[in-house]
Amino acid sequence: MKNLFAVALGVLTAIGGFVDIGDLVTNAVVGSRFGLGLAWVVLVGVVGICIYAQMSGRVAAVSGRATFEIIRERLGPRAGLANLAASFLINLLTVTAEVGGVALALQLATSVDPGWWIPVAAFGVWIVIWRARFELLENVTGLLGLTLIVFAVALFMLSPDWGELAGQALQPGPPADEPVATYWFYAVALFGAAMTPYEVFFFSSGAIEEKWTEKDLAKSRLNVLVGFPLGGLLSIAIAGCAAVVLLPAAIDVTSLSQVVLPVAEAGGKIALSFVIVGILAATFGAALETTLSSGYTLAQYFGWSWGKFRKPAKAARFHLSMIVCLLIAVAILATGVDPILVTEYSVVFSAVALPLTYLPILIIANDREYMGDRVNGRGMNFVGQVYLVIILAAALAAIPLLIITGAGA
Amino acid sequence: MPTGPAASGCLVLAAALLLTGCTSAAATMEQAVGQGVAAVETARLVVEQELDDRTFTTTAKTTLGDARRELVGAATTVSETDVSTETDAAYRDEVLAALGDGLDAVNDARAALGGVGSLDATVPQLEDAADGLEDLEGGP
Fold first, then answer.
1. CA distance linking residue A215 with residue A204, whole number of Å
2. Partner-chain contact A265 B45, CB within 8 Å
3. Rounded to an integer, what distance in angstroms lies between the CA atom of residue B50 and that of residue B52?
4. Hey, which residues 48-87 in chain B have their CB within 8 Å of chain A?
5. Contact flag A249-B13 (C-beta cutoff 8 Å)
6. Contacts of B19 in chain A (CB under 8 A)
7. Mean pLDDT throughout B67-73?
8. A262 near A132, Cβ under 8 Å?
9. How far apart are CA A294 and CA A92, in angstroms?
10. Which of A33, A111, A177, A279 would best serve as a mutation to test chain B binding (most B beta carbons within 10 A)?
């Protein structure tokens, strides 16, 4: 019974924790412009993140060390540094987007300018990281994030033409009034949002925080293989809501307030309450995860003492680096830059950094020295390599598409 | 002629810069019209939700603030666009006027949320503003 509860909790937090500001914004933008014409990208991205998240979780559980620690040892400091630079910078951009997302969610509830909420959000993230236990911060935000299921409920309440939505999803391609390059730009952005690098670092470091062993592999696999696909369905529901309400009204999404319009249209104030709580939990949870991931990547590369399981005084540089990251995020947002714009750029640059994050994981998951008999099988290697090709294509296409389309304008 | 990956990279970059740099005045203004339509339609939707008691006033206020920011951004883009033909110049004036109508309607709606004026009255105002902007879609 206790095990069943632990599995259910893990799956639920994986669903609730899957969606962050990048998924919210990108799916809504895509839904308002292409309907469900890019739903296939979410499916491709979810399969990819499932493959690599369970791979990095397995590395951590079997070796007893986080993926990033092994990357430096196995591939050497230079390759490790390239991996660190790419992952850390994207992470920092994502921390900024998530803190901005928390501020925007609070603005929806209060109409107070997000500029006032940004320091409050950053302080909240810091105090929770400083004080709360790892399991608590992961489970509470994940479970509250489940209220985002209201997007799926709203989609049903809107009574859409299911045939039309299915038609959009099954016959993908740009609408007549959208350039092909823009379609592919958003495909790359959506892929980057689904496969954000911090998710694997957090997953792998979380395995160490929670002291996983080989016995926990089945549970972690279930969390990933059930939780993430259901989280992906939630992403498609966000796009679906935008496709039903915003697309016919020619409303291209440029702000978080537009993302919640279809939910209010479908379910009024009650649904709106749920979605605001869900967005707040999702962005706050992701802000915690990305801030922790920043600390994890730096500490694991430089060999500092790290982990929430240690008292802050025993992992001083780990905690200090996270404080600095939060201060940088606040400084970036204090320039007045639109957090939604930061989000859009963060998912595109995520796509650029993907190969540097995922290739080392594949290499280590094949190393018998660390993995023993738990190395990847042939099937897993084949799928992993197919995904590396997709990841590489997305990474190479991201910047040219960004320039050619004027960031999808 | 230089060859190799570096030269290829430069060519791709040059082509991309050429493509993005060559956006015509009409295309820029058309894009601003689309931005304006989206903002006014957003405002109309949230005002209707407020009238039906389907949204919180704080959320409606935030949404209208975002719509206003979009309209101001679109109007700034258009007013800073250099035109080289009489047709484009006339189109720019029409677009600026239509965006101004949209901005007035959104401002009135936001004021009505604060108790100044009637929110009901802003619905037709927003509809007219949206129609005016939609008429300008498709360019000069």
1. 16
2. yes
3. 5
4. 49, 52-59, 61-63, 65-66, 69-70
5. no
6. 403-404
7. 97
8. no
9. 7
10. A111
**Cα separations (Å) of A24 from A102, A145, A203, B39?**
12, 12, 20, 19
CA dist., res. A150 & res. A155, Å (int)? 8
Q: In this predicted structure, what is the pLDDT of residue B29?
A: 93
Give the 3-state secondary structure of residue A130.
helix
**Cβ of residue A272 closer than 8 Å to a chain B Cβ:** yes
Q: Provide the shortest C-alpha distance from residue B20 to chain A (in Å).
A: 6
pLDDT at A144: 85
Which pLDDT value is given to residue A199? 80
Taking the C-alpha atoms of residue A381 and residue A398, their distance in angstroms, rounded to an integer, is: 25
- CATH number of the domain bearing residue B111: 1.20.120
User: Does residue B138 belong to the interface with chain A, where contact is any CB pair within 8 Å?
Assistant: no
Record: contact B19-A404, CB cut-off 8 A: yes
Domain assignment of residue B65, yes or no: yes
Given this model, what pLDDT does residue A132 score? 86
Inform me whether the C-beta atom of residue B27 falls under 8 Å from chain A C-beta atoms.
Answer: no
- The distance of A312 to chain B (nearest Cα, Å) reads 39
pLDDT per 10-residue tile (average), chain A, 409 residues: 68 72 91 94 94 88 84 85 87 93 96 95 95 84 88 96 94 84 93 84 84 83 85 94 96 95 96 95 91 92 88 92 96 92 87 86 88 89 94 93 87
Chain A CB contacts of B13 under 8 Å are 403
* Domains of chain B: total: 1
Amino acid at position B85, single letter: T
A272 and B54 in contact by Cβ < 8 A? yes
Confidence of residue B2 (pLDDT cuts 50, 70, 90): very low
Give the residue among A29, A20, A41 at the shortest CA–CA distance from A239.
A29
Q: What integer pLDDT is reported at residue A67 of this predicted model?
A: 78
A157 part of contact set with chain B, CB < 8 Å = no
Select the CATH number that applies to the domain covering A26-404 from these four: 3.40.50.720, 1.10.10.10, 1.20.1740.10, 1.10.20.140. 1.20.1740.10
Judged on CB neighbours under 10 Å (0-12, 13-18, 19+), B16 is middle
Q: Which of B37, B49, B61 sits opposite A264 (nearest CB)?
A: B49
Give the residue numbers spanning the domain of B131: 25-135
CB within 8 A of A202, min separation 6: which ones?
Answer: A289, A290, A292, A293, A296
Q: Do B63 and A258 touch (CB under 8 A)?
A: yes
Domain ranges of chain A: 26-404
